[in-house]
Design goal:
alpha/beta; Rossmann fold; Dihydrodipicolinate Reductase, domain 2; 9-stranded mixed sheet; 10 helices
């Protein structure tokens, strides 16, 4: 007897939607019933590539048991609500929504119908996350940087919801909760919304995290440094390298008595495939939801606090005249 295959569809055939469709088409526990996109030509192209049909959203939801929602972030709540109301399990690309009201509505719909709602915080499924967790200990300070060149894709939201939310999710997971306070500064550069942002998060424990995100940098950089009472971990995500300074472990560190150093790397796995597999297991096997609506809401709530702080900081700078001076080249540019 052949194993049961989950009937799935993909709503949104853009950059990530295409990858989702291609992965699902090859997944052994999935029957990909179709792809939908508001641009018919794009849906036709991705459907042909994935060996499935291009369908209207109504037809796709009618035929599927579960859907991936990979539309622009501003439409997550509307599309997700339609799918959940129809009784379909949902793998929602990050962020879960763009407002907490919408996030709560999606969570309530899923809970009321006993449906799986998983949020696509892809970094949770990377090999790097496992390597970090095995060595990070209890963080006192975390420093994260996620920067890259400008791409028009994703500019319907700020760089906070586009890029920084990945590191916010990782930091909140490592710290075990939301921050007590948030301070941030940023500015729009190539779009109408902030394209570069730096945020400082303080937690009730006294721990602090500083995060920087930019989508107008000349190069790609993904780094994180984690400091604790028993050492430090430095991670280069792009280079797949990790270095550790730890008490009583590794090669003796000449510069810190009683500590040792360790260098490690990892073989990156297909994080998107792992994310989809976790979702499928939650639906078919009743496995725990890897990144549930509560985790998605927590990351969104912190991201919105960062955005609010950026807006407040910019307003104060404009009121003082500092922002106008910088925009006219006095004292440098933001």
């Amino acid at each position: 007897m052949s194993p049961r295959r989950l009937r799935m569809g993909v709503i949104g055939a853009g950059h990530f939607g295409r990858f989702h469709a291609l992965k699902l088409a090859a997944a052994p526990r999935v029957a990909l019933v179709g792809v939908h996109d508001r641009h018919p030509g794009r849906a036709d192209s991705v459907a042909a590539e994935a060996g499935t049909a291009a369908l209207s959203m109504e037809a796709l939801i009618a035929q599927a048991e579960a859907v991936v929602v990979a539309v622009p972030a501003a439409s997550h709540a509307a599309v997700g609500a339609v799918a959940l109301a129809a009784g379909r399990h949902v793998l929602m690309e990050k962020p879960i929504a763009t407002t907490l009201v919408d996030a709560d509505r999606l969570a309530a719909l899923a809970a009321a119908r006993g449906l799986v709602l998983q949020v696509g915080h892809l970094e949770r499924f990377s090999a790097a996350q496992g390597a970090i967790r095995a060595r990070a200990g209890t963080p006192l300070y975390i420093e994260a940087s996620r920067i890259g060149p400008f791409k028009p894709r994703g500019t319907d939201v700020s760089v906070v919801l586009d890029l920084m939310i990945h590191d916010l999710d990782l930091v909140l997971d490592l710290m075990g909760g939301e921050p007590a306070s948030v301070e941030a500064i940023g500015a729009p550069v190539a779009s109408a919304l902030p394209d570069l942002v730096s945020a400082r998060l303080r937690f009730a424990s006294g721990a602090v995290a500083t995060l920087t995100a930019s989508r107008v940098a000349p190069r790609i950089e993904r780094r994180m440094r984690i400091f604790g009472a028993d050492g430090a971990v430095s991670v280069d995500f792009a280079g797949r390298r990790l270095s550790v300074l730890a008490r009583g472990r590794g090669e003796p560190a000449a510069h810190v008595p009683g500590f040792g150093t360790e260098a490690a790397s990892w073989q990156e796995r297909d994080a998107l495939e792992a994310e989809q597999a976790a979702f499928i297991a939650a639906v078919l096997d009743g496995a725990p939801v890897a990144v549930d609506a509560a985790a998605g809401r927590r990351a969104l709530a912190t991201a919105l606090r960062v955005e609010a702080s950026v807006a407040d900081t910019l307003a104060r700078m404009r009121a003082s005249g500092l922002l106008e001076q910088r925009q006219h080249g006095v004292g440098g540019g933001l």
